[in-house]
Design brief:
The strands form two sheets. This protein has a five-stranded mixed β-sheet. A hairpin with a 2-residue loop joins strand 3 and strand 4. Helix content is about 35%, strand content about 15%. The structure holds iron/sulfur cluster (2 copies) and FE2/S2 (inorganic) cluster (FES).
């Protein structure tokens, strides 16, 4: 029977267990995904292995990990696409709770800072929205909150608390680009959100399992809004005349 060798990172900081790697040999079945292989280990070889998962259908975002160094969903990645040896590690941008489980709560703290959808006072429900705006907003709403884009972002890894991160720029863009919304969140992104740190490398866009064009459709439009506010002389003049800070 064909087998695959898994090298899995183990650690548990709360009990002082330092980082080490355990190797397991797992029988391969047709169509097997990495999460199946990890479940085989958990069920047959080492029940103490900690892994977070929920849907096994690439919908909940909870099985995010680094597979051979690349941030991916374990339930969406077929074993036969990764070769005979697969190294499985937790997301490196977040503190490890145990083995493959990371603490992503920082993202929920950032999410609390983002003002929610606030309709223009003159808008009457139900809102009539152009199809083009619905299509644009739909892309952002496919986000499954896996945080793979946060994990791959070198700014998050190096300046954790100074940049909200691509996942949150997607959320902000989905609200800012909504035609019925009346809040401009680019000021929040500029000052507290640290969007200036992003150098548009597009690494986040490359790993998104939902193929959201994070950099092209969310980050760059928000950067353009900020440039209009901060550097465009006509925009600045209008702001001064109208007595607006932003
Ligand atoms: S494009 Fe910006 S947000 Fe995306 S990975 Fe690069 S630095 Fe991070
Ligand atoms: S934008 Fe994509 S990579 Fe980032 S959290 Fe959402 S689904 Fe995951
Ligand atoms: S288990 Fe839900 S996305 Fe993988």
């Amino acid at each position: 029977m064909q087998t695959v060798k898994l090298k899995i990172q183990r650690s548990e900081p709360s009990s002082g267990k330092k980082v080490s790697y355990d190797e397991f040999e797992v029988p391969v079945e047709e169509g097997m995904v990495v999460l199946d292989a990890v479940h085989y280990v958990e069920n047959n070889l080492d029940p103490s292995l900690a892994v977070r998962w929920n849907c096994k259908a690439a919908r909940c975002g909870s099985c995010a990990a680094e597979l051979n160094g690349m941030p991916k969903l374990m339930c969406k990645t077929r074993v036969d696409t990764l070769g005979d040896h697969i190294t499985i590690e937790p997301m490196k941008a977040f503190p490890v709770v145990k083995d493959l489980v990371t603490d992503v709560s920082h993202n929920y703290e950032v999410a609390k800072k983002i003002p929610p959808f606030t309709p223009k006072p003159e808008m009457k429900s139900p809102f009539l929205i152009n199809q083009i705006d619905i299509t644009r907003s739909k892309e952002f709403r496919t986000c499954i909150e896996c945080f793979l884009c946060q994990d791959v972002c070198h700014v998050i890894r190096e300046h954790h608390s100074d940049y909200f991160g691509p996942k949150h720029v997607v959320k902000i863009a989905s609200l800012d680009l909504h035609p019925a919304d009346c809040i401009d969140r680019s000021e929040l992104l500029y000052h507290e959100g640290g969007l200036g740190f992003c150098d548009i490398t597009k690494c986040c866009q490359a790993v998104c399992p939902e193929d959201i064009r994070i950099t092209d459709n969310a980050i760059i439009p928000e950067k353009e809004r900020i440039v209009d506010h901060v550097y465009d002389p006509i925009g600045r003049l209008i702001r001064v005349v109208k007595g607006r800070k932003w």
